[in-house]
Amino acid sequence: MKNWKEVKAMVMSLFGMKALPQQEGKLSFSKEQKEELIEALGDPALFDNFEKAANEEFEQVAKLEGERDQTKAKLKALLGEKEAAADAPATGAEADNSNKGGNSASPKAEKSTDEVIAELQAKFTKQQEEIDALSNLPEHDKPELLTNPKGKMSLVHSATHLFASGKSYDALTADRPWNQRLKAATAPGADPSLISAATNWDAANIARINQDFEAYWREDRQEVLDIMQDYRGIPSNWEVISGVDDRIGYVGILTQEITQGRKKNWLPKNKQKFIPLEGKVYPVQIDIQFEGYELQQIETSWMNRFNKEGSQPNKMSLVRMLWEHLLKQARKEDDQVIVKGVYNPDVDRTEAQSFIFRSNGFLKLVIDNMYKTFNPFKNLGTPTPSNIVDYVKSMCEKLPEEKRTMPGLDYGMSPTHLRWYIEKKKLLEGTYPTYKEGDMSVDGFPNIQLKKVDYLEGTNFHYITPDDNIKILENVPREKALLTIEYLKRQIFILGDYKMGAHVDVFGMQWDAGTPVDYNNQIFWCNDVELLTDVKVPMAADDATPSAQYHNVLITAANTGATAITNIDDAENGKYYYLYGGSDTNASTIANSGNFDLTGSVTLNSKTMIKLYKRPSDGKFVEIYRNEDIRIEEFVILAPDATTADAADGTRFITGTNTGATAITDITNAEEGMTYRLEGGSDNPNATTIAKTGKFSRLSAGITLTTGVFVDVIYQGGKFIETNRG
Question: By percentage, how much of the chain surpasses pLDDT 90?
Answer without folding.
Answer: 29
